[in-house]
Design goal:
By secondary structure, the chain is mainly beta. The chain contains no helices and 17 strands.
Length: 209
C-alpha cells in the first residue's frame, strides 16, 4: 500500500512475472496539487491487476495505465474540484475501468484500446458522483464493450450507495466506440449539458437517459 499526504507526486509500477498472483496497487492522497501515475503490465492470472487511486482535495492529477492483462481493474476516486484523471487500458481482456468524481470543473477520461469484453464507467450513481462544469470522455476499440457516463448531482453524495441523479449543469460527455456489439449509456439530468457519441461497427446499442 502506498500513501501520500499533501503536496507530492507518486510513480508506482508493478511488472510481475506470470507466476505472481494478486498484484495490487492502492494509493490514497489528501490535500491539493497532488499527482499520481501508476502502471501495471503483463499479467493474465484472473484476479490480479487491481489498481486504485483515491484523492481528497483539488487541483490534482491521477493516471492509471494497464496493458497486456486479463481481468484487470482500475479505479480512480476524487473529491474536490479542478481535478484531472485518466485510465488507459491497452490489450486487456475482461477488464473494468471506473472513475468517480464529486465536485466542479473536473475532467475524467477512459481509453480502452485493442481489447475485448471491457467495461468503462464514469460517475456511476450507485457509488455517488456529481457536480457541474465537469467533462467526461470514454473511448473504446474492440468488441463486446460496455460504457456508461453519468453526469449530475447525487442525492446521497459520493460513496453513499444508491444515489439518484437529480441534476447538474454545463457538463460535457464525449464517447466513442469502434467494433461490434458494443453498448453505450449516457445520463445527464439537468440543464445545458452536451453529449457526443460516435459508434462505428455492427450490432451496437445506445441509451440516452
Amino acid at each position: 500500500i502506498h500513501k501520500a499526504v499533501g503536496l507530492g507526486c507518486i510513480w508506482a509500477t508493478i511488472m510481475a512475472p506470470p507466476a505472481m498472483a494478486f498484484d495490487t496497487i492502492s494509493i490514497r492522497q489528501n490535500g491539493h496539487d497532488n499527482e499520481i501515475n501508476a502502471a501495471q503490465f503483463d499479467n493474465h492470472i484472473v484476479g490480479d491487476n487491481r489498481l486504485s487511486i483515491e484523492q481528497n482535495g483539488g487541483l490534482s492529477v491521477a493516471t492509471i495505465v494497464q496493458s497486456n492483462s486479463t481481468d484487470a481493474m482500475a479505479s480512480i476516486t476524487q473529491w474536490g474540484s479542478d481535478n484531472v484523471n485518466s485510465i488507459i487500458q491497452i490489450g486487456v481482456i475482461l477488464s473494468d475501468a471506473v472513475i468517480r468524481q464529486d465536485g466542479q470543473h473536473n475532467t475524467g477520461s477512459i481509453m480502452q484500446f485493442g481489447g475485448s469484453r471491457l467495461s468503462a464507467n464514469i460517475n456511476l450513481l450507485t457509488d455517488g458522483g456529481g457536480g457541474s462544469h465537469n467533462a467526461g470522455e470514454i473511448f473504446q476499440s474492440g468488441n463486446e464493450q460496455t460504457m456508461s457516463l453519468v453526469q449530475g448531482s447525487s442525492s446521497g453524495g459520493l460513496g453513499s450507495g444508491g444515489g439518484v441523479a437529480t441534476g447538474g449543469s454545463f457538463n460535457l460527455a464525449q464517447s466513442g466506440q469502434t467494433g461490434n456489439y458494443n453498448t453505450a449509456i449516457i445520463s445527464q439530468p439537468g440543464n445545458d449539458n452536451t453529449a457526443i457519441l460516435i459508434q462505428d461497427g455492427n450490432g451496437s446499442s445506445f441509451a440516452d437517459t
